[in-house]
Automatic annotation (TrEMBL):
The active site is at residue 207. NCBIfam families: salvage_TenA. Homotetramer. Pathway: Cofactor biosynthesis; thiamine diphosphate biosynthesis. GO terms for cellular component: cytosol. This is Aminopyrimidine aminohydrolase. Keywords: Hydrolase, Thiamine biosynthesis. It catalyses: 4-amino-5-aminomethyl-2-methylpyrimidine + H2O = 4-amino-5-hydroxymethyl-2-methylpyrimidine + NH4(+); thiamine + H2O = 5-(2-hydroxyethyl)-4-methylthiazole + 4-amino-5-hydroxymethyl-2-methylpyrimidine + H(+). GO terms for molecular function: thiaminase activity.
Length: 225
């Protein structure tokens, strides 16, 4: 059994809950409150800035030129293609680019980005891959599932989002990461595999929390006025 098949099976209950979350279902059925989507887009934009840094770190840590190139390509796609979707949405939603970049991160965004960056800075390239993999893989899976809902790809607000994440180009990013992680873990001990699985589960949990945070538009639970 491939290592990624094993961790996919373990994470399935978490991924199922993400898929059935009202935020995700609201995108697919076109019923999501636009203010929640706006909140998500702003938080996701600043999340992606840190997410892109992980690919830069992957390129730095790689000891093979082809792996460096792959990480560099993923960095390019995130900064110039995925984030272009957010910039285009922001324009339509009346959010300026500086407002978008200067979004104040929510506690969940801080926790998720910090966790990933910590793993990427302190850990091995395998740990870095285990941390980023749920991001591309689960979004591709969600995009594919939502694209099967009649009208989801044509929705005036959420159609472009579904189109982007179900696209073969986005699926290729997930496949790159899956193949690399399988290759790098060929000779890993059971102990190392367990550690990598735990990282994969943690970022899968953070993915669920990100949907929920967006649905609740959850910032700090404090009144500072
Ligand atoms: C929180 C989150 N996770 C994953 C992705 C897909 N790169 C994203 N845009 N945002």
């Amino acid at each position: 059994m491939k290592f990624t098949d094993r961790i996919y099976e373990t994470a399935k209950p978490i991924w199922n809950q993400s898929h059935h979350h009202p935020f995700v279902q609201g995108i697919g059925h076109g019923t999501l409150d636009i203010d929640k989507f706006k909140f998500f887009m702003c938080q996701d934009y600043i999340y992606l800035i840190d997410y892109a840094r992980l690919f830069a770190l992957g390129s730095l840590k790689a000891d093979r030129l082809d792996v460096m190139q792959t990480f560099a390509q993923m960095l390019h796609i995130t900064l110039n293609e995925e984030m272009a979707l957010h910039r285009a949405y922001a324009k339509r939603l009346g959010i300026s680019e500086s407002e978008l970049t200067n979004t104040k991160p929510s506690p969940t965004t801080i926790a998720y980005s910090s966790y990933m960056l910590n793993i990427a800075q302190r850990g091995s390239i395998k740990e870095l891959l285990a941390a980023v993999l749920p991001c591309a893989w689960s979004y591709y899976e969600i995009g594919k599932k939502l694209s099967e809902i009649p009208g989801a790809m044509e929705h005036e607000w959420y159609g472009e989002w579904v189109q982007m994440y179900q696209s073969p180009e986005f699926g290729e990013v997930a496949s790159w990461q899956i193949n690399l992680l399988n290759e790098f873990t060929t000779f890993s001990s059971e102990e190392e595999k367990n550690q990598l699985e735990e990282i994969f589960l943690n970022t899968s949990r953070f993915e669920y929390m990100f949907w929920d945070m967006s649905y609740q538009k959850a910032m700090w639970p404090l009144d500072e006025k």
